[in-house]
Specification:
7-stranded mixed beta sheet; alpha+beta
C-alpha cells in the first residue's frame, strides 16, 4: 500500500511539474489557447441560453432577454451613442482587459478579461438597447472560457461594471 501511495504521489508531482513548466514556458495566453479561443464570440441577448454550470453572469431586463438575469440591466437616460462611449470609458482601466470588438451601429462591444495570476480568459459581451422612454439599457453577459465554476468572478464583474457605467454616464451627462 505504501508503494502504491508513493507511485501515485510521484505521478501527481510529475503532472503538477509538467503543468507548471508549460505555464512558465508558454505563458498563460498560449497555454489557455490550447483549450480554444479566449474570445467566445457574439451572443444574441434575445435568444441567449445560459450555461448549466455556474460560470457566467447576466445583467438584463425581461423585454430584452428570455434568459433569467442575475441582476437588472442598468438603464441610463441618455441616447445609445453617449452610453456606448460611457461603457468604453467606464471599463478602460479594468486590469487585464482587451476590447476585441466594437460596433457603434449595432451598439455592441466585446471584451476579453484575464485573471491576474493565472490569466484565465473571460468574454464579456455588452449591448446597449434603446428603451421605450428614450433611454438606454446596458445588457452585460460575462462568461468564463475554462472551468465549471468561477467562484463568483463573473457576477462580481457584471455588478461592478453596471455601477461603473452608471457612474461614468452621470459624469458625462450634459
Amino acid at each position: 500500500m505504501r508503494r502504491f501511495l508513493r507511485v501515485l504521489l510521484a505521478i501527481i508531482l510529475l503532472i503538477v511539474t509538467a503543468f507548471a513548466a508549460a505555464f512558465l514556458i508558454l505563458g498563460p495566453e498560449r497555454l489557455w489557447a490550447q483549450f480554444g479561443p479566449a474570445d467566445l464570440g457574439e451572443v444574441d441577448f434575445a435568444n441567449l441560453v445560459r450555461r448549466d454550470t455556474p460560470n457566467d453572469a447576466l445583467a438584463c431586463l425581461p423585454q430584452f432577454c428570455a434568459a433569467k438575469a442575475d441582476i437588472p440591466a442598468p438603464v441610463i437616460a441618455q441616447p445609445l451613442g453617449e452610453v456606448f462611449r460611457a461603457v468604453q470609458d467606464a471599463v478602460a482601466h479594468e486590469p487585464g482587459l482587451a476590447q476585441v470588438h466594437a460596433d457603434p451601429g449595432q451598439a455592441t462591444l466585446r471584451f476579453v478579461q484575464r485573471s491576474k495570476i493565472m490569466g484565465f480568459p473571460d468574454t464579456i459581451n455588452v449591448k446597449i438597447a434603446a428603451t421605450a422612454d428614450g433611454g438606454s439599457a446596458v445588457l452585460i453577459y460575462s462568461r468564463s472560457q475554462l472551468g465549471k465554476s468561477d467562484m463568483g468572478v463573473n457576477l462580481a464583474r457584471v455588478t461592478r461594471w453596471a455601477g461603473l457605467i452608471v457612474t461614468t454616464a452621470r459624469k458625462d451627462a450634459p
